[in-house]
Amino acid sequence: MSDPSGQTPKGPTTLTPDQVELLYYGAARDGQLELLAEFLRQGADPNRPDARGFPPIILASYNGQAEAVALLLKSGAAVDARDGKGATALAGVAFKDEAEIARQLIAAGADVDAPNNMGRTPLMFATMFGRLAMIDLLLEAGADPTLTDAEGKSALDLTAGQSDPSIFEKLQRAAAARNEG
């Protein structure tokens, strides 16, 4: 406990730079809007990744923090910032099935076909995890179901392990429409 001058029985209350960083990235991850806004007002870089390679927008997106995502975008966060594996926030929310945040990111100009380091796109992640509504959202936003990853597999190929045949049918129709157009 400290007094108003910042003193404790053991001396001044200060945080190390590492502790400040933990608070900043934690605020993004946990949706602590007031704290996050204060960090950004004080000049925190909305694009600087944490020690594990995750930019704040990915931390907020992956953890379902729509308001924090909006604040970060408003503060200049790159909508297609990538983590250490090359994945974008949109890929994370496609896997997690966070439709509201996916819409935010797409409205802010996210590349719906941005591949990670293995060539996997947000549509491929939505497909692998059976996220039907997310598949629809991404296809409506222009995602290309014919793109292939580093193993030569498309989103259509990735439906092989799915128990829901509607995923295959949906992607097959989208691929055919793209090939006709």
Automatic annotation (TrEMBL):
ANK repeats lie at residues 52-84, 85-117, 118-150. Keywords: ANK repeat, Repeat. The keyword Magnesium does not apply. It comes from the Bacteria. The keyword Repeat applies. InterPro entries: Ankyrin_rpt, Ankyrin_rpt-contain_sf. Pfam families: Ank_2. This is Ankyrin repeat domain-containing protein.
